[in-house]
């Protein structure tokens, strides 16, 4: 659905590349996470994929369309949610959605239904300038769904949202995936990526370090430990045992057979830990 | 359809930003300014106060049919003459003696008159006493190249400002307001949101042009109706304001595309405003219309506005507006292409 080949981009048109020779593919119906710290080149890549920045060098095709020569029909089939809410503050929530819906040549969603989905139905007739940042973020997300896009570009869709709203947005993203929408998710939040993405790409300083599914990454880079808490002689004890070393495996079996186990957790590496291990960089969350 | 929804959006945003209220208030304010603060007559003609010590000369003056008699007043004594001079700052006393064969006169000035005025008064008095041999030019020998139709109805000085106010506010209103609108949208980044839809740039900018045109027409109709009532040619006025507003807004859109915020663009706004205002010189200094003023699009706009609101005085020929319309279309096409470059898309 998305093919990027040897893409470069420089804001100063010099050798200081914000995007430095990246290549990747996103399959139809997949949620592809583009992960990296601030300034890594994530949003620049999304702006190129959506035609907001020109392709300076390399090839980019979205839905088999070269984004250097997009047509209005291309925009009938994509939805874009921006990191910073860019809405008409003097229009109401519903007026914003109605206006943007009127720009499409394809059947659009009912604005009231979309507002209901993101929990803004009650404030539909309130001016957006009076919305909190979280409400504006939800409206921007709702706007990206107005044309039932085949490809959805989401830039930090749950940034700044409270946990319950964030959970609601994540559910909507999962629903869109079930409907067959291809989703390009840009974020620096590894928990979101871990929960939602089929595959992720780590990008640092404009270069992709690695692309794989979160599960494979954990299996490849995790430490394969089990953390176990048990009672012995009335006191609580805690141990971390390797699933790889024979001695640790035998001890684990012994504890399971002879002691009172209180808790047991597999100790997988988080995506964040893998990111740090692979890129040597820390994420700013 | 998309153009229509873009226009609706601009009208709602404009209404909620009180643009319509401001336009109406501005029109009323200009009307009040013209009616109460600018005088109807700014003439500073000198009043001659005559004391004739000779009956023969008094009769001769009474019998004359001079136009300047309206600015003459007669007194019977020196005391009365001095009192009249004290009452009127722009008056000069003339005391006449002798007979018609060898008249003499004494002039009593206020003291503030310059040499030019003093010499002029001397000439007028000499004319009163001796008559003039100058023959007036026949009105039939005068040909007005711009179709001036002077039927003797002079425009009061205060109302003569009407075409200028219409040009400044109705036609050039878009120049400043479009900067404010564009920079407000730049700060809200709504252009990015528009850029990822199938909406065309010409529809987006066209809506702004039409919205500002509507504001200009509202202003023009209110101010003209209050000032000259039904004597104006309203259809012609609406046409001129529409074309003029289209041009000025399009030129401003071009300029605004080079700046990021209002403060950066102040120099450009002021420069454009000054350049577009220069034809006012030709409006007030009749005969001063050098080529560099005539090539400005606001030159034909200003004189066409004059013809529309004062049909008996100005030229009613609006064919010059066709050229302005062509210039407006060109400016709009340039603006659209600049904005397409700005949002890095190659489509219309």
H/E element string of chain B?
A: HHEHEHEEHHHHHHHHHHH
What Rg of chain B do the Cα atoms give?
28 Å
Number of DSSP E strands of chain A: 13
Specify the overall morphology of chain A.
globular
The SS-based structural class of chain B is alpha/beta
Poorly predicted runs of 5 or more residues of chain A: none
The proportion of residues forming helix of chain B, as a percent range, comes to 55-70%
Return the string of H and E elements of chain A: EEEHEEHEHHHEHEHEEHEEHEH
Most strands sheet of chain B: 4 strands, mixed
DSSP summary, beta strand count of chain B: 4
Average the pLDDT over all residues of chain B and give the rounded result. Answer: 82
- Mean pLDDT of chain A comes to 87
- Helix proportion range of chain A: 25-40%
Query: Which sheet architecture does the biggest sheet of chain A show?
Result: 6 strands, mixed
Largest interface, by Cβ-Cβ below 8 angstroms: which chains and how many residues each? A-B, 34 and 25 residues
What class would the helix/strand composition of chain A place it in?
alpha/beta
Can you describe what's shown?
- The complex is a heterodimer of chains A (285) and B (348).
- Chain A is an alpha/beta fold and 285 residues long.
- Chain A has 10 helices and 13 strands.
- Chain A is 33% helix and 28% strand.
- In chain A, strands 6-7-8-3-9-10 form a 6-stranded mixed sheet, with helices on both faces.
- The longest helix of chain A is centred in the middle third of the chain and has 16 residues, at 163-178.
- With 348 residues, chain B is α/β, with parallel strands linked by helices.
- Chain B has 15 helices and 4 strands.
- In chain B, helix 3 links the parallel strand 1 and strand 2 (72-75).
- Chain A binds chain B through residues 50-54, 68-73, 75-76, 78, 80, 82, 84, 86-91, 95, 99-100, 102-105, 127, 140, 143, 147, and chain B through 1-2, 5, 9, 12-13, 16-17, 188-190, 192-200, 343-347.
